[in-house]
Amino acid sequence: DAGVTQSPTHLIKTRGQHVTLRCSPISGHKSVSWYQQVLGQGPQFIFQYYEKEERGRGNFPDRFSARQFPNYSSELNVNALLLGDSALYLCASSLGGQAGGYTFGSGTRLTVV
Amino acid sequence: AQKITQTQPGMFVQEKEAVTLDCTYDTSDPSYGLFWYKQPSSGEMIFLIYQGSYDQQNATEGRYSLNFQKARKSANLVISASQLGDSAMYFCAMRANSGGGADGLTFGKGTHLIIQP
Question: CA-CA distance, A29 to A31, in Å (whole number)?
């Protein structure tokens, strides 16, 4: 079975640009959550989606948005990129709610120059 | 709000020795879950072990065990018979179960474990 798939694996953007990151969860998992991990820190929660609805949001500005599609894949969008948005963005899939744990993808490493 | 504290930024351990990675947590939620993840240099977060706040016994998964002391709010990871491949970052994380866990995982800052031959 395929694990959590994230694309792209790496990308470089310029300040002020927009970026879209994609995540495909494990088959059967209905929940996707996004995390930002800056160098030397633990991941920080950005969003959680379950059954295509936003269920939780971390302390991130409105420049960050996400959505989940009918096939449970998800996109994370970041507008007006800042240098401080440079980080590893991790996607995790789970069954949803309190059921089970979280399986993470390998992440997308975003560099803003 | 939840908080995870990992007080060991880095550790050096001889191969085949046991190692304990410290984790303390803070939450007002009576129901919560505690997780440990391993992150090698490739970046992927690899799930190691889970402990629920109402679990009566400490969790074990192969060489990994979780020393759960609820009154002290600690959830230390113990790795027995360490191997060179255990060298990685290790993160302790918590999920509060109120609201169906919608607030995701709260992570600590991690411990960089290096196993020496």
Answer: 6
Tens digit of pLDDT for each residue in B51-94? 999 998 999 999 999 999 999 999 999 999 999 999 999 999 99
Contacts of A103 in chain B (CB under 8 A): 47
The answer, yes or no, to whether residue A96 has pLDDT greater than 80, is: no
Determine the pLDDT at residue A74: 98
- Cβ atoms of A93 and A99 within 8 Å: the answer is no
CA–CA separation, A108 vs A8, rounded Å? 6
Residue recorded with tokens 């302790």: B92
Distance from A2 to chain B by nearest Cα, in Å? 15
Q: How far apart are CA B103 and CA A82, in angstroms?
A: 25
Contacts across the A-B interface (CB distance below 8 Å) = 69
Contacts of A90 in chain B (CB under 8 A): 43, 45
Q: Spell out which residues of chain A touch residue B59, defining contact as CB-CB under 8 Å.
A: none
Please tell me the predicted confidence (pLDDT) of residue B100.
67
Q: Does A92 touch chain B (CB under 8 A)?
A: yes
